[in-house]
């Protein structure tokens, strides 16, 4: 029945041809990074023609449609009866990975937002055969908005350097409000909740949809209490700032967080759709200015621009209400991408990674250089496998190496209602960053080039026509 059903036996046969001792040593060696996932992908390559399609990223998992592990037969039947599970409806959006010490397997997490009915779980882990199990367990997911203790709908997640997984729950299914938005953090060693923040009604508006969290930890030794989470409000056009230590949050809005009508049409693989999504992609720079600040890079989905704001401003609840605030505190780069990008991420050396819609591809940009197509370097391109990169993450493995993980989907088929389980629609890709950027100018990080303060974000000049004087930030409507 499953996509891997009959092929499983074939793969097992292939794997059984390896000397078991050799295989064990192989596995042990591979257990510290993405390699542990590739034994299977190698095996699956035998089963799936086209899997080996050339791309500089390796495919770790792929699905025509998602398959789920239910805790028992009754839960499965109930989910099916109530249309909490409709086969083929689930669309994964984000990926993150947690590498674990010892003989514990690394875990791949994916999110499945509830744009609509039929998604039995909204956050899960993916097993070796690609089946999704609810995280932390099914009881968090079966409520489907009927009570607010568990998850209602999760778009994206973030794993931080303190071994915590942050999940932002929008509280909505489709357009319907069920619960207040909330952010939950789990300790990945115990899978216990270590923090919950329910967003106060004063910090969102009816159209708010909190979809992308990024976590800013200022670690002191092992103390992780100084943590802020910034969350993109894709249709309220703002950023939610969560001050974890004080358990408070506030929302900031700005014109650069809105979509651009001229960029609201997307064309992928010959299919087009309109989507006026605002701020979606967000990436945090490494600590700069002697370790006291970070920049937050962000862009709207329906845009080709990239913007940047020092996090010190976001963290100051009153700053943007100050009429003496510098109008250039939130900046847009002068040059633009050739077409739209969804998710983005930045590594510890200040290299940004993002996908482009056309051609479907993954790129890097060195933040020490001008934000310009001249300085965007293509790392992988594939018309079929790299469509719509909605999840982009930099993951640290246990050897201290950085890995790039990307979730792609044929989102154009989702939007045009032409999804078919006869072809692969969703893929997770990964590669070590060192290997990926080996032959690209992104290899020379900002630090190596200029010292940590020479980020191009610091060199943006005020837009023409602006004369100094008082200024009002964030007004959205007035007349
Ligand atoms: C934070 O506030 C929420 C209400 O928004 C409350 O339920 C939660 O217990 C608080 N968390 C901490 C760690 O104080
Ligand atoms: C929470 O929201 C309510 C209603 O908007 C407001 O009256 C209250 O002051 C807010 N509380 C905090 C802590 O911001
Ligand atoms: C926050 O912003 C306000 C208004 O501009 C300013 O007076 C205050 O000094 C800032 N606080 C910090 C900690 O920077």
TrEMBL record:
CC terms in the record's Gene Ontology section: extracellular region
Chief location category: secreted
UniProt-listed Pfam families: MRJP
UniProt cross-references to InterPro entries, sorted A to Z: 6-blade_b-propeller_TolB-like (IPR011042), MRJP/yellow-related (IPR017996)
Keywords assigned: Glycoprotein, Secreted, Signal
UniProt-annotated location(s): Secreted
Coiled-coil region(s): none
Family designation: Belongs to the major royal jelly protein family.
PANTHER family in the cross-refs: GH10609P-RELATED (PTHR10009:SF7), PROTEIN YELLOW-RELATED (PTHR10009)
Protein name: Protein yellow-like isoform X1
